[in-house]
Amino acid sequence: MTFHAWLAFALASALLGLVPGPGVLSIVGYAIGAGRRVALASVGGMMAGNFLAMSLSLLGVGALLATSARAFSAVKWGGAIYLVGLGLVTLARSGRANGGEAGPAAPIGARAAFLGNVLVGTFHPKTIVFFVAFVPQFIDRDASYGYQAALLVVTFCGVVGLTDTVYALAASRAARLLSTPRAALWSRRAGGGALIVSGAATAAARS
Question: What does the DSSP 8-state code read for residue 138?
């Protein structure tokens, strides 16, 4: 793999990371509903999920999803149901907090956000299929496949991790500006809504 090929892949990864999708929506949802610490934990989970998804794709699982409508649908709906369920839990907790003396505690913890986005990143079907269709274009057949695959995986996860961090910090900062109890309530509701929209976007994905 030449340096120019690697640089083109890094730039393409950055563009993909900047385009809002289910992953970005879930990170923004955590940031608005639970704050910076939880949002950054969700970014770490998304990086781990992307690493697993890309590794599975390069091992051939993505090709199975691309050709099997049943497998694609199973992965798609599993991820969609999870995100929508998490969004509903966030909305329910924000409602209960509003009924009593609402404190600043996050409705979703950092560990739950991390594990949740590991699942989102790993099982988002469009991501896996994208890897299968896109990544091989940058593989040099005359060079070591393992080395090139590892380099592309690390590059993608690092670049998209940076763009996800930007989204997380910007969204959490915007949420902190809403310091009144009523504004905090609506920010948590907005976070839950973003997770539900993320799930709907996953459900709408087509193979």
Answer: G
Q: Structural domain boundaries of the chain?
A: 23-203
DSSP count for the chain of H helices, then E strands = 9, 0
CA distances for 124 relative to 1, 51, 182, 202, angstroms: 28, 12, 34, 7
- Do residues 202 and 76 touch, judged by C-beta distance below 8 A? yes
* Predicted pLDDT at 41: 94
Is pLDDT of 6 > 80? yes
End-to-end CA distance of the chain: 29
| pLDDT, tens digit, 9 for 90 and up, residues 38-68 | 999 999 999 999 898 888 777 765 555 555 6
Phi and psi at 179, nearest 5°, equal -90, -15
- Measured distance CA(123)–CA(150) in Å, rounded: 20
Measured between alpha carbons, how far is 170 from 164 in angstroms, rounded to an integer? 10
For residue 26, pLDDT beyond 50: yes
DSSP-assigned states of every residue in 33-52? HH-HHHHHHHHHHHHHHHHH
Res 114: pLDDT? 92
The tokens describing 100, both together, are 């009593």
So what's the pLDDT on residue 105? 44
Alpha-carbon distances, residue 159 vs 14, 16, 17, 69, 74 (angstroms): 6, 10, 8, 30, 29
